[in-house]
Amino acid sequence: MKNSTLLIFFFFQIGFVSAQKPLYKDPNQAVDIRVSDLLSRMTLDEKVSQTMSIWQKRSEFLYDANGNFDIRKAEKNLSFGLGEVNRPSENPNGSLNGSYGRNPRQMAEITNAIQKFFVNNTRLGIPVMFHEEALHGLPAKDATSFPQSIALASTWDDELMKRIFTVVAAEVRSRGAQHVLAPVIDIARDPRWGRFEETYGEDPYLVSRMGVAVVKGFQGENSEKGIDKSHVMATLKHLTGHGQPEAGNNIAPANLGEREIRESFLPPFYAAIKEANAQAVMASYNEIDGVPSHASTFLLKKILKEEWGFKGLVVSDYGAISELQSRHHLIETQAEAGVLAFKTGVDIETPDITTFQYLKPAIESGKLSVAVLDETVSRILKAKFLLGLFENPYVDVSKAEVVSNLESSKKLAKEAADKAIILLQNNNDFLPLNASKIKTVAVIGPNADRKQLGGYSDSPKYVTTLLEGIKNKLGNKVNVTYAEGCRLIEESEWNRWYKDSTTPTSAEDNKGRIEEAVKVAQNADVIILALGSDEGINREGWAENHLGDRSSIELFGQQNELINRLSQLGKPIVVTLFNGAPLAIQNVQEKSKAILECWYLGQEGGNSVADVLFGSVNPSGKLPATFPRTTGQIPAYYNHKPTAQRGYHFEDNSPLYNFGFGLSYTNFTYSKPVLNNSNIKIGENASITVTVKNSGKVDGDEIVQMYIHDLVSSVTVPVKELKGFKRISLKAGESKIVTFEITPDKLSIWDLQMKNVVEVGDFEIMIGSSSADKDLQKILLKVEN
Asked: Where does the Fibronectin type III-like domain start and stop, copy by copy (predicted)?
């Protein structure tokens, strides 16, 4: 009887505790159980609220006139909870991008204040997520700024990428955000497109490897079990076709067939989901075959969820659901736009409460089912549980400042910039320069003393320009003179990427600058000429009053006139290019001794370029995209089909610089590649080995590349495709053996039945230093039944 009483008392205690502490608040319960319990307690209003986010409406819903949290506004507008608050680093009273926004402590304070409201002042206490951009670092005050994406791709170093975005994740999370809208893994095939710089280039395999590494950096290695307090949830952008828009115009239709989508545009998304467990995907603005991505059941349901088994969140691009009505004209009202996107599989609307506010009446009228809503809300709640927000909703304010000011992060930014720089030309080994043999260096050009970080940037603690970097490097040993040479645009503000208007500098106004540059250069032993583009010229064009695409990839403004005049002096010219996309630079090639492609190199850019110029760093970057000779060659990507690129009348149709190309201050020699087995069966693996030797006198890094071509196939395939690469470091005279595995997925094609298969026949396996035929050695692999 006594034992029976104790047992009854024990079960009574459990029942009492359970009544006091719901299952969803018990961290010892499985996530799915917590999600189910919480969902069962939610009203329709609370469920719909989880699908929404706010950005520009923060002043209306969350902030007072000074940009501080206003609990009265929150209680009035957000009492049912909310899915996300967007870009808390920004202060609505400052500039759009947050250059006058919140420092680390201030951002941590505002996220804690907002989070406290949702945890303590809503009925169920569901935490809110905060999202930020994080393309090449958190675009917020005092955050570390790494090289722009296209520059990071030039490193061909996926291990480096993982380290970089582990740091970025820690900076984001320490300030109170947990979700980032990155990485961009679009395949970029048109350098007129202003968003080219945000990508990892034109090749599906390279982009896939970069994307997998970035997601692992953001989320950690074991994110399927949860994302810890130093990592964040990543979002793959943009599904899909975004990087080959019609005429290079942002958001224009992507005129692609299903096979090409599967061959070229989907592999990076598939790899990042399957290998790195990416937790979120963003649909793209563009349409494919008449169907915008936010309304594409083919993309969001058939492929993403059914074929790939994706269980994470689908996030809308900013305003893209509204555009189903306002731009694409698929339906008549904003309410219908919201219902259409929601049915298609979009879980969260960004950036503001616009169309998903109509989900509740759609459900009440029977246009939408509660079951579909429950599935969506379950995914959102699961993300919040995996992020640990129910147990750890707040951040340590003092830690935020520390994490954003680590010496190790600055060193990593420098390493990334060093590895990103590409030596495109070096006539007669003109570089590196010997400072002891130079009396005067003239640093000239519109980008010589201009701080450029590329899109989705803000104000890090410092940015080193080329002029500053050279002065830092040379000190008083060499006389350094400077002239702007010519100006590209009049805007000089820090946030010119965000400004709607851009004012090109007139040729008349640049006459005097060119004359001044000629005078300065007359007394120099060598001219360092900084050309390229500008953040205000080639950028994301997000509206008709905010354009960013170009009709030409020729050098903008009077840059060719500047180099023409300087070349008449007979002085040696070294050109450093700062830009976000390939440029047509035949004139530069003809008139310069050496050319460095620098892209936008982040906060350490000037120091890194100076180290390369004067030999402290041996350049090792390789091109992640083809450089056409002219605008008319576009598209010029290397992995084209056999009937493409026959040529043009009276013109050389070869690229100016091939995909994968990049010189060094040393030389590398390759042995003849050897297959471990030249005949394999379908489904079997092979491997290929090559010995690479540093045959020069300087230590250096080489990026060894493997390409494959199916010689005869049931459908057409590219003339060659990158299927492997390895970055190796070699001391002068040192050799290393490099081995690549050739697995079935590297031999497969999408056949006539749209099945991914390996066909019997001969495959060309190519090993070398770039995609150019002259740089590759070929060997045959036979595949049999």
From this structure: 702-771
CB atoms within 10 A of CB 259: 15
Query: Which two structure tokens, joined as six digits, stand for 344?
Result: 């298609």
Instruction: Give residue-wise pLDDT tens across range 200-213.
Output: 999 999 999 999 99
Quote the CA–CA distance of 29 and 377 in Å, as a whole number: 19
Rounded Cα distance, 695 and 685, in Å: 32
459 CB-side CA count, 13 A? 17
Among candidate residues 142, 203, 317, 458, the one labeled active-site is 317
**CATH assignment of the domain containing 764:** 2.60.40.10
pTM of the model: 0.95
For residue 390, the domain's CATH number is 3.20.20.300
Q: Which amino acid is at 170?
A: A
The span from the CA of 299 to the CA of 344, in Å, is 9
**By residue range, what is the domain housing residue 693?**
668-784
* Alpha-helix residue ranges (DSSP H) falling in 345-406: 359-364, 370-386, 397-403
The 10s digit of each residue's pLDDT in 93-112 is 654 444 568 999 999 999 99
Q: Which two tokens stand for residue 133?
A: 């951009």
Residue 551 lies in a domain: yes
- Annotated active-site residue 500? The verdict is no
Which CATH number does the domain housing residue 560 bear?
3.40.50.1700
Residue 691 sits in the same domain as residue 604: no
> Are 687 and 739 within 8 A, CB to CB?
yes
Contact assessment for residue 217 and residue 251, using Cβ atoms and an 8 Å cutoff: no
Pair 392, 425 in one domain: no
